[in-house]
Amino acid sequence: MLNVYVVTHPEATHHVEDRVGGWFDSELTGRGLAHAARIAEALADRVAHPSGVALYNSDLTRTTQTAAAIEERLGTRAVTMPDLREKSYGEGEGKPDAWFRDRFVPPPAFGERMDHDEGLLGAETKTEWVRRIYRAMDRIAADPAPDKVIVTHGGSATFVIAHWIGMPVDALEYVSFRVSPGSITHLREDDYFHNRGVVSLNDTSHLPTGDP
Prior knowledge:
CATH class: Alpha Beta
Radius of gyration: 17 Å
Order of helices and strands: EHHEHEHHEHEE
Number of helices: 6
CATH topology: Rossmann fold
Number of strands: 6
CATH superfamily: Phosphoglycerate mutase-like
């Protein structure tokens, strides 16, 4: 069996300050650091060979801190990949949410969605974002390790999962897997048919009850 665990970083400062994340380099809060330790414990219980896990993370501080807790618990070394970052919101990164909402142009219900201009200078289009994540996933897929952990962001996790199940880029106009901060999504490929499935999505059972 090939198992992939997609981890979304837990609570970061931009969450509690009501700021836009994206490439804004926020840090984990105290609660986020505590949750990162719980994520590491949960993974130690789930992976077959903890010391042989291939660990990958976005290069932003909040994902690096999450990966550090996993490194310490599993005794493995993380590979940092900038391509696993969240979507870039250009000039909107780090801005108050109210500032962002006043300027953001949401994609239309019908029509051009992948290359839609969101009205923010320097922001990535959805196509650019997806292709970046898919580029990272092509590299990760080439790793022969039977257990892999990918530490990324809530938005980018959708395209990590989409790559896993083989969705082409031009089929992603409406795709969104909603996942919470600090969640673990379990992906698996079986040894016989080599089918790929989603074993569990957005699991937060390792976090304190009522405290996702």
